[in-house]
Amino acid sequence: MDKIMTTISGTAMWIPLYLLIIYLVWRKLGWQRTIGFVVCLALAIGFSDIICGIFKHSGPLKHLWPSFPVRPRPMCTEELQGLFHTPLAIPKRIAYGTVSAHAATTVALAWMSALAIRKNWYNWLIGISVVLICYSRIYLAKHFPMDILLGAIVGTILGVAIFFLWKKFDKTIEKSLK
User: In this predicted model, what pLDDT tens digit does every residue of 152-168 receive, in sequence order?
Assistant: First the structure.
């Protein structure tokens, strides 16, 4: 399962899903309003990643909360060495994973797109995608389950908040197009 989980945890596999999101929003709203949605979606994903970096002491705001206690990733935790399988192909670049940026960014994407698209089949598709990505991070020993939960909370807050900001912005665009 190592190669499958590494692929699931990567970006390239999910490009068709991202294109599907853009297509579905475009069909519903038109291209002008879709541009605003994509910009806000990028902001939600970017802010999710940056906020998670604060807790891992990485990224542009890594020094914002220096007293926050970081936790090593499972693959870098001395006490756990030898207790589980760690795929050898996974680099150990960043030792801390207190809040999962993968979970935060995918959950933010899921909330924003599900609230915009509002199709039951799509909600199932994006929900399964989020679960797969989050589980892959645990399987690859990149995060503990609590890291995933904290990332999902960050992603939920930002995804929902930026969706409602986009809705206010989108009403302005919609009025100007009429």
Answer: 999 999 999 999 999 99
Residue pair 144/138 in contact (Cβ under 8 Å)? The answer is yes
| One-letter amino acid of 67 | S
C-alpha 120/C-alpha 134 separation (Å) is 21
Q: What are φ and ψ of residue 56, in 5° steps?
A: -100, 0
Backbone φ and ψ of 144, nearest 5°: -80, 160
Residues 6+ apart with CB under 8 A from 95: 72, 73, 76
Q: Render pLDDT for 33-86 as a digit per residue (tens, 0 to 9).
A: 999 999 999 999 999 999 998 888 777 888 888 888 888 887 777 776 666 666
Report the range out of 2-11, 56-65, 98-107 with the highest average pLDDT. Answer: 98-107
**Rounded Cα gap, residues 113 and 123, in angstroms:** 9
Q: Left, alpha or beta for 99 (phi > 0: left; psi -120 to 50: alpha)?
A: beta
| Cα separation, 26 vs 168, whole angstroms | 18
d(CA 79, CA 25): 47
Sign of CA dihedral 49, 54, 55, 59: positive
- pLDDT beyond 90 at 148: yes
